[in-house]
Amino acid sequence: MMRTEIGSLGEFGLIRHLTKNNETKNVSTIVSVGDDAAVIDHAGMQTVISTDLLLEDIHFDLGYTPLKHLGYKSIVVNLSDIYAMNATPTQVTVSIGISNRFSVEALEDFYEGVYAACEKYGVDLVGGDTSSSKKGFIISITAIGEVPIDKYVTRSGAKKGDLICVSGDLGGAFLGLTLMEREKKIFEETGAQPDLENQAYIVGRLLKPEARKDVVEYFATEGVMPTSMMDISDGLSSELLHLCRESNCGCLLYEDKIPLAEETRQFAYKLEIDPTACALSGGEDYELVFTLDQSLYEKVKNNPDISIIGYITDHTEGKHIITRGGNKYELTAQGWNHLGGA
Amino acid sequence: MMRTEIGSLGEFGLIRHLTKNNETKNVSTIVSVGDDAAVIDHAGMQTVISTDLLLEDIHFDLGYTPLKHLGYKSIVVNLSDIYAMNATPTQVTVSIGISNRFSVEALEDFYEGVYAACEKYGVDLVGGDTSSSKKGFIISITAIGEVPIDKYVTRSGAKKGDLICVSGDLGGAFLGLTLMEREKKIFEETGAQPDLENQAYIVGRLLKPEARKDVVEYFATEGVMPTSMMDISDGLSSELLHLCRESNCGCLLYEDKIPLAEETRQFAYKLEIDPTACALSGGEDYELVFTLDQSLYEKVKNNPDISIIGYITDHTEGKHIITRGGNKYELTAQGWNHLGGA
Questions:
Q1: What are B193-221's pLDDT values in tens digits?
Q2: In which residue ranges of chain A is CATH 3.90.650.10 found?
Q3: CATH topology assigned to domain B6-148
Q4: Burial of residue A3, with CB atoms counted within 10 A of its CB: 0-12 exposed, 13-18 middle, 19 or more buried
Q5: Contacts B35 to A, Cβ<8 Å
Q6: Superfamily of domain B163-339
Q7: What's the 3-state SS for A188-201?
Q8: Do the Cβ atoms of A35 and B231 come within 8 Å?
Q9: pLDDT digits (tens, 9 = 90+) for B280-322
């Protein structure tokens, strides 16, 4: 396999090399890569901005994360924040810090993933920064989007009686991570090749998540405006507690309504973990949790991508979950680490 | 001195702590810190975005950079990119990665500098990300600004006969760095306390640079629209070669027109370095280099903050400098390292 040293291109050469086929797709992109700044014209729309810093061995492990997947996921998790505002992403900037342990070819893999995500979601790469680092791979992404005036949705608008909904299914990414960490440990101890047990679904949920463009488009088509919304990066419990605090309200969830993929459920039982706990406390599913006025029930009840999992209560009633067995427990943010995973 | 461990606050607690006094100043800031993304309304204006990644021991040395100054400078260098588009900065996002060697108090110092710069330049802190890092201090800043429709200025509009202008004076930051590196080396070898020789000017140029808000405001007041512009972060030569390449033109500079502060000139001679070389190849001055149609000569000739240093030629004529002695040399991008500095 060919290895081109990054130093052989120089910083500006490297940027030119990595962006040489970069074409813009949005009319809002006026000036793209290559100037002091990018210029964007969201004529008559509001601009939405979100940014993330991703660090090697904190947010990702290159031991089991292919660089192309990492590039793809880095973009997707930022776009997810834009969709979580009920907005449409239009541009991204990508900054990376890299040590000389990475070759130009390795960066090409990373950018292949970046461009694949940009293509799929229709966003333009409009800028960034490339720097050498002493150690480790550092990624900083800023996503920019647009939303019609005052159609953005924050975390603070939920009100008593609203339906609590989530998109897709939950807990899969956490089980994918648990599996990858287990196999990494076995590999380090015994040298045995990973056995992913045909768990393509949960591994895919971890390594190649998608943002819920389709759900936000569905809202626009159906004229549905959530009262509050956020994306699920840290687990349903933690996000819902945030949303309730920002909206100054309580909530009541039903365990049997929380959507789980069959693959997630089966693998959780195999590992003797409660699949509901994976959904509540596992992170990185990048689904949307949102609240809707009850009058919108008919518009979402038959959508297979949306599950109604409970409703918003007065803040004096607290935040609770009713289990399959009919018991009522207080909802707590147990976080990603609680289940004995990474 | 008090030391509060970052872990004692948790990620969300830390963000709340660092942003608890954050107030927005711009009507364009609709949603600020605390949601999935910020919402900005540049009603009828175009949005300008620039981003930078700053890494410890690559871009800054905490051995002689106070954290408050680092916070200030991190913001200013990004705002400089927005001004270099002839735009007005309105918002910033600040993401940091920090190891547990930093305390909450250390981060408060950093943010004190961030807020001081935001206050001075009238921009709002609207988002960011806080993460632990394995090692080192990682800073990623995105600056957002606005410009009236199509009044942005790129690097590609210079044309034959245009005046080449720079703001302020050049070379000081490079000499400040040279001095700090020298004193650091002496300290490491002998333990002797730094002797900054009352070089407040050049040390200030390095540690507390300012962005040229005033120059862009002057353009607006006087109805001056540069044909091209960029900020000087890597040295005048390198930036001018960029500008000429992007504009497909040549240039002719006059050495005796390049603005140098008296402090810069004297300290360069003391170190037996050519001060012109500091201006051409030293970086981090964050002044603006821009080109103007000759008809605007009267509007800038008496502005003490603007120096006319040459003019744009046809690209077939190449890029040259005429020295004080009357010799003509080709301009080359020697970069920051050429002079034997850091």
A1: 877 778 899 999 999 999 999 999 999 99
A2: 163-339
A3: 60s Ribosomal Protein L30; Chain: A; (3.30.1330)
A4: exposed
A5: 85, 154-156, 230, 246
A6: PurM-like C-terminal domain (3.90.650.10)
A7: HHHCCCCCCCCCHH
A8: no
A9: 999 899 999 999 999 999 999 999 999 999 999 999 999 999 9
